[in-house]
Write a structure and sequence with these properties.
- InterPro entries: KR_dom, NAD(P)-bd_dom_sf, Sc_DH/Rdtase_CS, SDR_fam.
- GO terms for molecular function: oxidoreductase activity, acting on the CH-OH group of donors, NAD or NADP as acceptor.
- It holds the Pfam family adh_short_C2.
- This is 3-oxoacyl-ACP reductase.
- With 450 residues, the chain is α/β, with parallel strands linked by helices.
- It folds into 2 domains: 164 residues, 3-Layer(aba) Sandwich (Rossmann fold); 236 residues, NAD(P)-binding Rossmann-like Domain (Rossmann fold).
- The chain is 40% helix and 17% strand.
- It contains 15 helices and 13 strands.
- The strands form 2 sheets. Strands 9-8-7-10-11-12-13 form a 7-stranded parallel beta sheet, sandwiched between helices. The protein has a 6-stranded parallel beta sheet with strand order 2-1-3-4-5-6, sandwiched between helices.
- The structure holds nicotinamide-adenine-dinucleotide (NAD).
Length: 450
């Protein structure tokens, strides 16, 4: 449901007023149910490398309407720029500039995806070209209109365009599931993972546990993972028992009432899974709280609970799961996926949120380190960093601050809980096996960051 300003702007008088005054006019974003086709066509694949040919070939095999030139197309659904073999910045112009004249032909909700490689610090001219793609991508994303997005995939050297992570990330960014993600670059660091055969139920046969699932983003994550075929355990505090039971009924999920900060939380989760005979494939560490105050007025009763819920509980729970694994009688599946909730506040900082930002920056560093522990098990750990998402948490922000916060991004609106859930479902999938220790922002290219 759109916010009040957006509803007004979409009315005839509101639209006229916004045009005259130059006010933000957010476009309606098309999500999974609005745009079921996986790729909006026609899709143009730019680039002359063998990688570009391979990407075009795969899309053709998937049934997409694939072109290799932008000229003469009146409407373009998707553009993929394959820049996997750059050696100097002079190559950027010939590769990118043909697209300039076609920008106005991009359809509403179009997708632009670059596929390039991260700088390695080894070859100055090559690194400059590689960095150039990132600068281009982040800027062009600010210029997209009509709910269109632009994102990049960074393939580590040695990872091919046909690697599961490369294919999976491309599918995700081209789909409507990434509606609120723009201006972001996601690194695929290994060829691990496998390409999903069952595209409509990519998590079939998997068991997922979501903490803080009773409402907001957590409930949306549970619903999305269930829609992707996973069996769910939904966890929340006893005080949210009624909402949790309702969600569990809706999803045929197993409810678990537990405070994640309790000293024995990890042990109780392990015992619960053993009792139910469940093997955990996906763990989503979503439970989180805010206790905002300027640092000058910060007190332990505001600092401690935020750190305890948002990060310390995550460390304790994953330690308990890994310990159980080490002792035999483990409860983790063959390729466990752990996804945690960070925040753009943890990236850029935010006035009044020293406690929250400390916890969320901690989350990002934590998943990076944890991914190293999980890799030998075939597992991954990653995070998503939501920007402004319309939930009960953000409904508590004072009205004027809230209105500014939801507009200061390239899509000029707040995201929905389902947008965060879609990114988590992707990171939980087989296809994302090569994505390790990353934080993916789901923020509409919030104008904060480093
Ligand atoms: P919310 O307050 O609507 O829901 C949080 C849920 O976590 C609630 O159901 C709550 O009962 C549960 N929870 C809190 N403490 C718990 C504990 N000790 N044990 C078990 N469950 C507990 O919040 P939300 O907006 O849905 O946020 C979900 C996550 O996303 C949080 O980690 C939050 O920091 C993060 N996030 C949200 C936004 C946003 O804009 N809403 C932005 C960035 C990050």
């Amino acid at each position: 449901m759109a916010d009040a300003y957006t509803r007004f702007i979409r009315s005839a008088p509101g639209g006229m007023l916004a045009k005259q005054l130059g006010l933000p006019r957010p476009s309606r974003l098309l999500r999974r149910d609005d745009r079921p086709e996986p790729v909006l066509g026609p899709v143009v694949v730019l680039g002359a490398s063998a990688g570009a040919d391979a990407v075009a070939h795969r899309l053709l095999e998937d049934g997409a309407d694939v072109r290799r030139r932008v000229e003469d197309l009146r409407s373009i659904g998707s553009v993929i720029v394959v820049a996997d073999e750059l050696s100097a910045p002079a190559e950027l112009g010939p590769l990118l500039l043909p697209l300039a004249g076609a920008m106005r032909s991009l359809a509403p909700g179009a997708r632009l995806v670059t596929i390039s490689r991260p700088a390695t610090g080894e070859e100055p001219a090559r690194d400059a070209a590689r960095g150039g793609v990132e600068g281009f991508l982040r800027s062009v994303a600010h210029e997209m209109r009509g709910g269109a997005t632009a994102n990049g995939i960074l393939l580590a050297d040695g990872v091919g365009v046909d690697a599961p992570g490369a294919v999976g990330a491309l599918r995700f960014f081209l789909s409507a599931r990434s509606a609120f993600i723009t201006g972001q670059l996601l690194t695929v660091s290994t060829e691990a993972g496998s390409t999903t055969e069952n595209a409509s139920l990519p998590l079939a046969g998997r068991t997922a546990l979501v903490t803080g699932a009773a409402r907001g983003i957590g409930a949306a994550i549970a619903r999305t993972l269930a829609a992707d075929g996973a069996r769910l355990v939904v966890l929340d505090v006893p005080g949210a028992g009624t909402e949790l039971a309702r969600l569990a009924n809706e999803l045929r999920a197993i409810p678990l009432q537990l405070d994640v900060t309790s000293a024995d939380a990890g042990r109780r989760v392990v015992e619960f899974l053993r009792e139910k005979g469940l093997t955990l494939d996906v763990l989503v560490l979503n439970a989180g709280i805010t206790r905002d105050k300027l640092f000058a007025n910060m007190t332990p009763d505001r600092w401690d609970p935020v750190l305890a819920v948002n990060i310390t509980s995550q460390i304790a729970l994953t330690e308990a799961l890994l310990e159980a694994q080490g002792e035999g009688g483990g409860v983790l599946g063959a390729q466990p996926r752990i996804v945690s909730l960070a925040s753009t506040s943890g990236i850029a900082g935010n006035r009044g949120q020293t406690n929250y930002a400390a916890s969320k920056a901690g989350v990002m560093a934590f998943v990076d380190a944890l991914s190293g522990r999980l890799a030998p098990l075939g597992g991954t750990a990653n995070a998503v960093a939501p920007g402004f998402i319309e939930t009960e948490m953000t409904a508590k922000i004072p009205p004027l601050t809230r209105e500014v916060a939801r507009r200061v991004n390239s899509l000029q609106q707040g995201g929905l809980p389902v947008d965060v859930a879609e990114a988590i479902a992707f990171l939980a999938s087989d296809e994302a096996g090569g994505v390790q220790g990353e934080t993916l922002r789901v923020c509409g290219q919030n104008m904060v960051g480093k």
